[in-house]
Design goal:
Elements lengths: L6 H8 L3 H8 L7 H14 L5 H4 L7 E7 L5 H16 L2 E7 L4 H13 L4 E5 L7 H4 L5 E4 L7 E5 L1 H14 L5 E6 L4 H18 L5 E4 L3 H7 L10 E4 L2 H13 L6 E5 L3 H6 L3 E4 L3 H16 L7 E4 L8
Parallel strand pairs: 1-2, 1-3, 3-4, 4-5, 5-11, 6-7, 6-8, 8-9, 9-10
Helix pairs in contact: 1-2, 1-3, 5-13, 8-9, 10-11
C-alpha cells in the first residue's frame, strides 16, 4: 500500500518548514513566488490532500462560507444547499449552516455571528419582509437567493414560468377546469408571481379563476381544498409541493381520485404517496451551484453585482 503523504513529507521534499506549506495551502501572501510554485507542484504531483488542521497552521485559516437558510425542513432549500455545498467544497471551502426561521432579527443575529467568525462570504436565502440592508453591508462577500437587491448579487427562480409549464402540461391532458392554491401574495415570489401566472392563464383562456391563498403549510392547503372544488374541477395547481401534499390528502379523503394535483419542487414523496400527482423542478440544485459560483468569483476579486434567474430544467417528464 502506498504511504499517504503528510504535510511534513511535503515540507521535507520542498526543503521548507511545515508552516510554509500551510501558508501555501491557505494562500498566505507572505510566501516567495518561487517557493509557492515549488510546493504547489509537489502537491499536485503527489496527489497530497491537506487536512483541515494542516490548513489552519502557520498563521493561516480554513476558508469558510456561511449559509443562512429560512428553515431547515424545507425540501427546496435543502436541494439548493446541496448545490452550494458541492461547489464550495470543491473550491476548498468549509461551510457553516444556520437557520433564520423567517425571522429578520434572528437572521441578522446569524450574520453578526458569521462576521465575528470572520467567514469569507455568506449565502442567504431571502424571504419577504426581510430588510437586506444588513446583508448589503457585506457587498461582494454575499449572495442572496430567491429575492433581489440592487447592491447584492442574487439568484432567483422563474416563478411565472414555473406555473406556465405546469398549466401547459395539464391542458395537454385535455383538462381545462383548473383551480389554484397558493400562499399569501405578500410573498412577492412564491405568492404573487405564481398566482399571477395562473390568473393570466384564466384570462387568456376566457375561463373563471378559482383560487385560494393561505400559509405555506400542509394544513393550510388541506383546509383550503374544499373552497376551490366544484363538480367540474379537473386539476388543482399548487404553488409548492408542501401545498400539493395537503391538497392530495384532502382529495383522498373525498375520494376525488379524478383530480390531477400539481406542485413545485420535484419532491419524490408527493408522487410516491399520492397517485395522480406530479411536480416540476424549478432548478433548486442548480440555483445553489450558481449562487456558490457567484460568491467564489466575487471572493476572487470580481466585485460586479450580478443577478441571475435560474432556468427551469428542460429534461423534466412533464
Amino acid at each position: 500500500m502506498t504511504k499517504k503523504l503528510t504535510i511534513v513529507d511535503i515540507a521535507k521534499l520542498a526543503g521548507v518548514g511545515k508552516s510554509t506549506v500551510s501558508r501555501v495551502l491557505t494562500n498566505h501572501p507572505k510566501v516567495k513566488a518561487s517557493t509557492r510554485e515549488k510546493v504547489e507542484r509537489l502537491i499536485q504531483e503527489s496527489g497530497f490532500v491537506p487536512s483541515k488542521s494542516a490548513q489552519a497552521m502557520g498563521g493561516g485559516r480554513s476558508k469558510v462560507v456561511g449559509i443562512i437558510v429560512s428553515r431547515l425542513d424545507s425540501v427546496s432549500e435543502n436541494k439548493a444547499v446541496s448545490g452550494i455545498l458541492d461547489t464550495v467544497y470543491a473550491a476548498g471551502y468549509d461551510a457553516l449552516i444556520m437557520e433564520g426561521q423567517f425571522s429578520s432579527a434572528k437572521t441578522n443575529e446569524h450574520l453578526a455571528v458569521l462576521q465575528k467568525r470572520n467567514v469569507d462570504g455568506v449565502i442567504l436565502f431571502g424571504f419577504t419582509g426581510y430588510d437586506l440592508s444588513t446583508l448589503e453591508k457585506l457587498a461582494h462577500k454575499a449572495v442572496v437567493i430567491a429575492v433581489d437587491s440592487d447592491n447584492v448579487s442574487s439568484v432567483g427562480y422563474d416563478n411565472y414560468g414555473i406555473i406556465n409549464q405546469v398549466i401547459a402540461y395539464i391542458t395537454k391532458q385535455k383538462k381545462q377546469h383548473i383551480s389554484f392554491i397558493g400562499v399569501d401574495v405578500k410573498d412577492k415570489t412564491t405568492g404573487l408571481m405564481r398566482l399571477n401566472a395562473y390568473l393570466d392563464y384564466c384570462k387568456a383562456a376566457n375561463i373563471k379563476a378559482c383560487f385560494q391563498t393561505g400559509q405555506l403549510s400542509y394544513k393550510s392547503a388541506y383546509e383550503l381544498t374544499d373552497l376551490v372544488l366544484t363538480s367540474e374541477t379537473q386539476a388543482i395547481v399548487c404553488a409548492s409541493d408542501t401545498l400539493a401534499i395537503g391538497v392530495a390528502k384532502r382529495l383522498q379523503e373525498l375520494d376525488r381520485a379524478d383530480i390531477l394535483v400539481s406542485g413545485v419542487g420535484a419532491t419524490e414523496l408527493l408522487a410516491f404517496i399520492f397517485p395522480n400527482t406530479f411536480s416540476v423542478d424549478p432548478g433548486y440544485y442548480a440555483a445553489g451551484e450558481a449562487s456558490a459560483n457567484l460568491l467564489i468569483k466575487q471572493l476572487g476579486g470580481d466585485q460586479e453585482v450580478t443577478h441571475l434567474t435560474q432556468k427551469i430544467p428542460i429534461n423534466q417528464n412533464v
